Amino acid sequence: MQLLNLLFNRHHDTFQHGIHPPEHKEDTRDMAIRQFSFAPVVVLPLVQHIGAPSQAVVREGQEVSRGQLLATAGGYVSVPVHAPVSGTIRKIANVPSASGKMVPGIFLEAFPFSGQEVMEGTPVDLDTASPEEILKGVQDAGIVGLGGAAFPTHVKLKVPDDKHCEVLLLNGVECEPFLTTDHRVMLEQAEDIYMGVRYLLKATGAKRAIIGIEANKQNAADHLNAHLPKDLPLEVKVVPVKYPQGSEKMLITSTLGLEVPSGGLPIDVGVVVVNVATTAEIGRLLPHGQGIQERVVTITGPGVKKKGNYLIPIGTPLRYVLEEVGVEDNISEVYLGGPMMGMAVSNLDISITKGTSGILVFTDKEVKKQQKVYPCIKCGACVEACPMFLNPSQLGILAKNEAYQEMADHHNLMDCFECGSCSYECPSHIPLVQQFRIAKSMVRKRKSKAHAN
Amino acid sequence: MLTKTLDISTSPHIQRGMSTEVIMRNVVYAIMPMVLFSIYAFGTAAFWVIFTALVSCLLTEYVLCKLSGKESSLSDWSAVITGLLLGLTLPPIFPLWMTFCGGVIAIALGKFVFGGLGMNVFNPALVGRAVLQAAFPVAITTWQEAFRPDRFTTIPTSLKAMPFMSPVFDGVSGATPLSAFKFDHITAPAAELAFGQVSGSAGETCAILIILGGLYLYARRMINWRIPVSILGTVFLFSGALYLLDATNYPSPVFMLLSGGLMLGAFFMATDMVGSPLNPKAIWVYGAFIGIMVVVVRIWGGLPEGVMYAILLANALAPQLDRIFKNRVYGTVKRKS
């Protein structure tokens, strides 16, 4: 049986398929988190999350202190924005965002020489608060998924009435190459994580928690195990290094052996997944009733001079960040997030937002220009990479013919979560996942149009 | 102030760094030892046959690209593979003008009419060979024994036959192990087969070199290991079962594995990425189908060897196999059709 498993590549401690890109984490993984300096002006977009924009509750010229509420949630799927620094509201106007769109935003000029004490709010008491009060506290703290998705966490934590949460799964995988944000958080903010787990267990009603950590962060796993409070039902599980181990579905398969049904959510198999840095933030903020003002960001890549893991105030302009750390003359592309799923920025005037887990700078040496695209030779590398067991080769041919509906109806296009493993492997350099993104958005657009009619 | 203009692109921003051209080139590396051994065993004749096949494939590819106004696809190395493989599957004393025709057919009919690299249904080299087998049944089954003392000094007259003239085969004998088995019921010893001491097509005789070439490609993740394993496994099990039933009438499974074009076919022809299925389950069926066909043709068919037809038939089935034996998509109970 062992041999059979080996022969058919079946491992029970991880999902099947996936890829092994070079990790490149050695540059920053041993560097402790350092506080980043305050920019003279921070720019806070009111759309830093998936959902409705936040609504500004301050006016131009108003003086605010650090931690003060600047904008309230614009609905249920929305979160408020807090002041990352004490200062004066200079302007409320449209600001550029990473996606290229202009979104409403707040310009906040920091007081020079301010002590920058943080305002306290109403604490959410762990012992007396109801699950609903905790969810409210999470929303009021402005918390979104810090792993990069930036989906409002309180929405994710809300277990539907007909479902039941068995396991709270903390995501400490960080499978993107180069990034070491979650690694440092686990090493340096263990107490906050434990506290966050207590809040989350209560909020979801789960009886136990598991934290999944990739084997390249063994020291973080050991650290979390060593300081684990006796009464906390948290189990540390080390999973093999493989991309995209950090995807919710893959991590659920790796740690629990379950498969999230196609089109479903983790709660359909009784699991709620929360990023470990998000958990730490909840554990730190809720006891003080504070809002999120800063986050840990890995700044790395061949184009960066002072690489490291920095605690950066939300809203710090990207240009200011890069000028502070210093970049090489021949930089070519800057990504928010990791190299596999991160977004290339076109504009340095955008801000660090709640979802920015890393800033990666490539020089013109790493950026390949004008690669020759060969025809698909059906080598199957993409098929053996796809963690969802799709057939990217076939989907690629259909995408070329713009047969988007057929891709969705007969080839499970909508199960693709755009991890990019297929494009990474393809020897013919066919932009597979790039085409699938277009296909998915076309299918969604058509569907919403059909609904409208 | 930072004023650098940035480029943008969509993720992923890193790639494995593999390219189609590199894969094809490595297949050529894996084939080269067989080419050299072939020349060593069969002399200058083998060199000329392989060389002619190569030149005709490259020339055809070049001319067809020119005529159709396409960018030349010579740089992807796939025509080199086709040329070398075609040469290796022909008898070493095969008339050169016929070899040349085979190369033209392989590229034009085997690949170009389907739309070029990646679009072909069949292995182009085998298409070329199949047409030659139909057109020149005598020439393609006339062999020369290996390691003739004069192999480097004389060029067989058959090689120099004028186009459209029947070639003269001078004093050749040297039945292949498979025809010796088929018609005279003699099986060659395994060691002779493994080390290429027998007669046969230019590149099929030395099983060891073929296996080493295949292992090299496997180590570089350039062939799907399931294909040779399933083909050879099926041949071994099927012919082994027959051998157990009746050892006097049926050849031993080891003889079946090592003789003829099976090794070359299993490692270098059936593994052609374009013609083989993509999904693992489909690949197992594909390999098993080839294995069964080979045994059936060799034992009950009219021809001594069936590898070529087995692979061509399997190539035709491959897209259908992929459609039937799909991967189960993550999170689905049964595949949607």
TrEMBL record, chain A:
Annotated positions binding [4Fe-4S] cluster 1: C376, C379, C382, C426
Topology in the lipid bilayer: Peripheral membrane protein
Keyword match Metal-binding: yes
Gene Ontology biological process terms, A to Z: electron transport chain
Keyword Heme among UniProt keywords: no
Names of required cofactors: [4Fe-4S] cluster
InterPro entries: 4Fe4S_Fe-S-bd, 4Fe4S_Fe_S_CS, Helical_ferredxn, Ion_transpt_RnfC/RsxC, Nuo51_FMN-bd, Nuo51_FMN-bd_sf, RnfC_N
Keywords: 4Fe-4S, Cell membrane, Electron transport, Iron, Iron-sulfur, Membrane, Metal-binding, Repeat, Translocase, Transport
UniProt cofactor note: Binds 2 [4Fe-4S] clusters per subunit.
Domain of life from the UniProt record: Bacteria
Gene Ontology molecular function, alphabetical: 4 iron, 4 sulfur cluster binding; electron transfer activity; metal ion binding
GO CC annotations, alphabetized: plasma membrane
Location in the cell: Cell membrane
Residues that hold [4Fe-4S] cluster 2 according to the record: C386, C416, C419, C422
Pfam families per the UniProt record, alphabetical: Complex1_51K, Fer4_8, RnfC_N
Transmembrane spans: none
E.C. number(s) listed in UniProt: 7.-.-.-
Domain 4Fe-4S ferredoxin-type, first and last residues per copy: 369-387, 407-436
Subunit relationships: The complex is composed of six subunits: RnfA, RnfB, RnfC, RnfD, RnfE and RnfG.
Function: Part of a membrane-bound complex that couples electron transfer with translocation of ions across the membrane.
Family: Belongs to the 4Fe4S bacterial-type ferredoxin family. RnfC subfamily.
NCBIfam families associated with the record: PRK05035.1, rnfC
Designated name of the protein: Ion-translocating oxidoreductase complex subunit C
UniProtKB/TrEMBL annotation, chain B:
Positions of transmembrane segments: 22-40, 103-122, 225-244, 250-270, 282-301
Keyword Manganese annotated: no
Keywords assigned by UniProt, alphabetized: Cell membrane, Electron transport, Flavoprotein, FMN, Membrane, Phosphoprotein, Translocase, Transmembrane, Transmembrane helix, Transport
Keyword ATP-binding: no
Positions bearing FMN phosphoryl threonine: T176
Quaternary assembly: The complex is composed of six subunits: RnfA, RnfB, RnfC, RnfD, RnfE and RnfG.
Protein name per UniProt: Ion-translocating oxidoreductase complex subunit D
Primary gene name: rnfD
